[in-house]
Amino acid sequence: MSKLPKAHKFLDLSDYGRPLARVIANALQHTAFTPVHVTIGFIISGLIGVYCITQGYYWLAAFFLIFKSILDAADGELARVKQKPSYTGRYLDSVADIVLNALIFVAIWSVSTTNIWICLLAFLGLQLQGTLYNYYYVILRNKFDGDTTSRVFEYETPIALHGEKQKHVDILFGLYKLFYGVFDKTIYALDRQADQGKTMPNYLMTSISTFGLGFQLLVISIMLVLGLKAFILPFFLGYTVMVFVFIGIRKFFY
């Protein structure tokens, strides 16, 4: 968790792929590969994972879903080592994540006996979980690392950075708002005062990191290879209750 000072670093259970992501980024630092290329790589890995689920190749599906998670971290690492941040890459990453999440859930629904409404509600729950984690994590970074550029809730189209086209930023930001806006507004409505409260302890942030996409994909992968495909969507629907539990803890104690 390099974006936080030592006293407030916590074990991020969703960030297990970071060490390998750094290896990949360092290996690509002096090549023609860009962060967007890596993002495209994780999109391909995720799509292969989806295909493997539909075909019943669950060990392969687990491999490609976890590899997708590693590449998801590697694109940001590569942007940092090359010192070439871009809004294009930032929003492409987020848009790709939510689309792949939807495809993964539909694929799991197609090979299980789960009701389609459970699939839909579980997907909505999955996104709420991720939004809450991002919300609390960004607040923590803003408070202790002076990070004012990372935000969960974004309302205005940013100005394109050097090397990218404003048209691309406009399109991807529009898609970002379309896909994530309702989740951002819901979480903010549930906990408007989070940035004014006391700092949550590291153990609580570690618990909330189970809402991170990397950990979610790990759980899906484990359940697939254990033959628990029928329980994946009900699990994520049920685990959404923890959104309200964590918010309640934050409000009551911090």
UniProtKB/TrEMBL annotation:
Keyword Transmembrane helix: yes
Transmembrane segments: 32-51, 115-136, 202-225, 231-249
GO MF annotation terms: transferase activity
Keywords assigned: Membrane, Transferase, Transmembrane, Transmembrane helix
Domain of life of the native organism: Bacteria
Record flagged with keyword Transferase: yes
Record EC number: 2.7.8.-
Family of this protein: Belongs to the CDP-alcohol phosphatidyltransferase class-I family.
Name of the featured protein: CDP-alcohol phosphatidyltransferase family protein
Species this protein is from: Bizionia hallyeonensis
